[in-house]
UniProtKB/TrEMBL annotation:
Protein name: GDSL-like lipase/acylhydrolase family protein
Matching InterPro entries: SGNH_hydro_sf
Domain of life: Bacteria
GO MF entries: hydrolase activity, acting on ester bonds
Source organism of this protein record: Roseateles saccharophilus (Pseudomonas saccharophila)
Length: 322
């Protein structure tokens, strides 16, 4: 098994570009901080791509870059290297595309306050959490805190953006090639932000912890609310991959099936498989990436299986939703 060889667009444009012809599989990658190769981020938490391993020699050109990674899906519009390498007139033919997207958008939606700076209310369809006066009955469990209208808005936004990305793929020589996305792991809301050298810009964290406090969600329910949101996202992504007509060639790996060591509630630093509140440390990335690698290689080799619509596989590593 060989680790994924990672290059950047700058490497391709350099005086001695890498010879991608020596690799069986050639992939293009783009994503959020889970893919970023900024030195500060790699020193701090981890890069999921670094832990991918394949039986056949595989390379990826990672457009997440050394600066701030994607904070929102719409940032694809300001990612010229990725768009050029995917759909440009001189774009190479890739065997697949690796994406780490949607998580930052989910966090942003959860952090949307109940009112604007001037005190005017923000409607439920534009946020994921409910004010205490809007909570449902206790019989609804933690779903009582969750804004289904806001989720519908988020889901429509994500679906539209992924469709746009697939259309970009089909404008270039990689038309119809598989696009691989992962779900996210369930973070423990806690006061664990990024260090000052994490290069995460204004989003220094913590992220979910202050939002849940502001909305008055009881601390005993924080972990369950986080799980609810991440599982909603996982189901959304898997439903998209299952819709082959609307999302052709999309494969989603369910990271929520990979057992991880949870962070301790209230902890402020590295805990379990987590570096901070929303970023995995190296052990967490290792666990998810090794399972995802198997799913990716099965698709590349034409051996992928359709994930059952009911029931859960114990490991969830080798059956991506297709």
């Amino acid at each position: 098994m060989d680790h994924l060889a990672c290059f950047t667009p700058a490497d391709l444009a350099g005086n001695t570009p890498p010879d991608l012809g020596g690799f069986r599989w050639k992939l293009l990658a783009q994503g959020d901080s889970w893919f970023s190769n900024a030195t500060a981020k790699l020193n701090a938490h981890a890069n999921l791509l670094q832990e991918l391993v394949f039986k056949s020699a595989t390379a990826a050109v990672n457009c997440a870059g050394t600066g701030n990674a994607l904070s929102h899906m719409v940032d694809l519009q300001s990612s010229p290297d990725f768009v050029r390498l995917l759909a440009g007139t001189e774009a190479p033919a890739w065997d697949g595309v690796l994406l780490s997207v949607g998580g930052n958008d989910l966090i942003a939606a959860a952090r949307t306050p109940a009112q604007n700076w001037d005190g005017t209310p923000i409607p439920l369809e534009l946020r994921l959490l409910r004010r205490q006066t809007e909570w449902g009955p206790p019989s609804a469990g933690v779903a009582r805190y969750f804004s289904e209208p806001g989720w519908a808005t988020y889901a429509g936004y994500l679906r539209a953006n992924v469709k746009h990305l697939l259309s970009l793929r089909d404008q270039g020589p990689s038309t119809g090639k598989p696009v691989f996305m992962h779900c996210y792991a369930v973070p423990m809301p806690r006061p664990a932000g990024a260090e000052s050298n994490d290069d995460l810009g204004a989003a220094s964290g913590p992220w979910l912890y202050p939002a849940l406090k502001t909305y008055g969600v009881p601390a005993a329910d924080w972990a369950a609310v986080s799980r609810l949101m991440v599982f909603h996202l996982a189901q959304l992504l898997k439903s998209m991959a299952a819709d082959k007509e609307a999302f052709p060639g999309l494969f989603v790996f369910d990271s929520t099936t990979v057992p991880l060591a949870l962070a301790a509630p209230g902890s402020t630093g590295i805990s379990g498989d987590w570096h901070n509140e929303i970023h995995l440390n190296h052990s967490g990335c290792f666990k998810i990436a090794r399972a995802w690698s198997e799913a990716i290689e099965m698709v590349l080799e034409g051996k992928h299986l359709i994930q059952p619509t009911s029931g859960r596989k114990g490991r969830g590593a080798s059956t991506p939703t297709s």
